[in-house]
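Exercise 3.2. Students should predict the tertiary structure of the chain below and write it as structure tokens, then compare their answer with the key that follows.

Predict this chain's 3D structure.
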Amino acid sequence: MGTDLHELLRSLRVWDPEVTDLPVFDPAAAPTEPLPLFTRWFAEAVAAGQPEPHTMSLATADAEGLPDVRIVILHGADADGWSFASHTHSRKGGHLAARPYAALTFYWSVLGRQVRVRGPVATAPAEEARADLRARSAGALASALTGRQSEVLGSPEELDRASRTAWERARREPDTPVPSWTLYRLRPDEVEFFQGDSLRRHTRLRYRRSPRSPREEWARELLWP
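Answer key:
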């Protein structure tokens, strides 16, 4: 007999106290800008043992406005925005060329925390994309050299041949350029911090950039759970 999906779903619990710690979050003590709070929460997720805390959901939309989402790696976050990378010819690259706006979500289950970020996306200068790729592993370069991301694959053997060739070149020429490799930066209009609560009285703090402010200051507001 196969697994009953609904029975399995009913058996699951969120934030098991044996593996999850729900810290108290005082939004009144939060900084005036979102980046310092994100940096602190990220460090706390790492310290708490969150697996792969640098992974995030990236949501984009195509030219018709149809949404898509996938998991990608955070490459950095600073005053210029939250960074990730891909090929310009990938599906996400095509979406961002047509509609340069996206949303990110981080979920750190060990602390019952989410961070949601959304805003316009721009491409970094080519030299920064090259430096980003050089700073990563040989496997990352091999994957980038394999290319053809999101295209239809004829057979597993075709991928195996292309990957072997890419790995050999990555080891032989670690500075090989990949012109389609692009570093994207999302400059947030909104950043929301969500702290879970065992009584479901979750704390949600949203930062919104104020375009009318001469210094583009951030407005802070609480949201209902």
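Discussion points: The radius of gyration is 20 Å. The mean pLDDT is 93.
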